[in-house]
TrEMBL record:
Transmembrane segments: none annotated. InterPro entries: PEX11. Residues 1-24 have a biased composition (Low complexity). It comes from Aplosporella prunicola CBS 121167. This is Peroxin 11C. The keyword DNA-binding does not apply. It comes from the Eukaryota. Keywords: Membrane, Peroxisome, Peroxisome biogenesis. The keyword rRNA-binding does not apply. It is found in: Peroxisome membrane. Residues 1-36, 252-283 are annotated as: Disordered.
Length: 353
């Protein structure tokens, strides 16, 4: 065979060999580690577990009077805020509509002429108005319920006074503030209960009827809010005193810590060994630190809540009011949300148990 024929034979044999090589090195498809159905099943399971936990925590939250009040407080003021914003938006739309109509009609009117027109509201405005009205009524319903369940709040006042008498606070300032709060809250409760029952027609004697009764009812509402404002002011006194006391304690703790460090250095020089004692001391320090963190969080939560309540108490302490409806909703939502957040956090332990 000639060299040309050998080259031709080699060329003819090349394609099958190349195909075999390509076939040998081509990657084989790997099976999916998790199918789409498995992923959807895992997602559904996770969602159901989260929903189950949320419902259990919501049930635990609404199983206590404090949890119910925090929830309804936040809900009521949130509805008030949303209602105020919807009303403001509706008013702006109506104002723009009126301006547009006035601008179009001004070209056709002679000097001195006046146009009076009645226009049907657009469908979007009607829906907005109905939504605002529904939110206002719902907020009023929730607020009315919260006042109703406070009718037996005098029992809480008795329990509070009894507990203060049996186990009074050790600090003299806190003790005085607590007794003052018991008194002002008792007055607040009596006045609010009377005004509420009169508004429902339960108190209908001559003193609560007619124009005289209306003035008396309004006066009792205002004075109940003033006693509530006194309670908030006393809360600021208590919080300020506790902050001052904590600052003093912290300074003493720092001085004691410096003394302990010096003692530890001297003990190391003398070769003192106290392994078990050091472990117990570390546990005690850790427990004290955690307790201070809880107390500090509670202090800030109470401060935020009272800072939000303070303008509201002033607002309702005067017949004309001092803030708008939107601010009432916002401040109340902050005050209620501070308590609701803590109540919700506590439900995690209940569900876990």
């Amino acid at each position: 065979m000639t060299s040309a024929e050998e080259a031709s034979s080699a060329d003819k044999a090349a394609p099958p060999a190349a195909a075999a090589a390509d076939k040998a090195v081509s990657p084989t498809p790997q099976p999916h580690t998790q199918t789409q159905t498995q992923r959807l099943r895992a997602l559904l399971t996770h969602t159901l577990r989260r929903t189950d936990t949320t419902l259990l925590r919501a049930s635990a939250l609404l199983a206590t009077p404090a949890g119910i009040d925090s929830t309804l407080c936040t809900l009521s003021y949130t509805l008030t805020l949303v209602h105020a914003r919807l009303r403001a938006r509706l008013t702006t739309r109506l104002y723009k509509l009126a301006l547009g109509m006035a601008a179009k009609a001004s070209d056709a009117l002679l000097p001195g002429e006046t146009l009076v027109a009645t226009l049907a509201q657009p469908a979007s405005m009607r829906r907005l108005g109905r939504a605002a009205e529904a939110l206002e009524k719902f907020a009023g319903l929730v607020s009315d319920f919260r006042v109703f369940v406070r009718l037996w709040g005098m029992l809480d006042m008795y329990v509070w006074a009894r507990g203060t008498w049996v186990q009074p606070p050790r600090d003299g300032v806190v003790k005085a503030v607590t007794w003052a709060q018991v008194l002002v809250n008792t007055a607040y409760q009596v006045l609010e209960n009377g005004a509420y029952l009169a508004s429902k027609g339960v108190l209908n004697s001559e003193g609560w009827s007619g124009e005289r009764g209306a003035k008396r009812q309004a006066s009792w509402w205002v004075w109940s809010s003033r006693f509530w404002a006194a309670h908030v002011a006393l809360e600021f006194v208590r919080l300020g005193w506790e902050w001052r006391r904590e600052v003093v304690v912290e300074r003493e703790r720092e001085r004691e810590g410096e003394g302990e460090k010096e003692g530890e250095k001297e003990g190391e020089k003398k070769g003192m060994q106290s392994g078990q004692g050091e472990g117990n001391d570390a546990d005690a320090v850790q427990a004290a630190r955690l307790r201070r963190e809880v107390e500090t969080a509670a202090w800030w939560r109470q401060l935020v809540s009272n800072l939000a309540y303070a303008p509201l108490t002033v607002h309702w302490s005067v017949e004309e009011g001092v803030v708008s409806e939107a601010w009432v909703g916002f401040l109340g939502m902050v005050a209620g949300g501070a308590g609701l957040r803590e109540r919700w956090r506590q439900t995690a332990a209940v569900v876990a148990a």
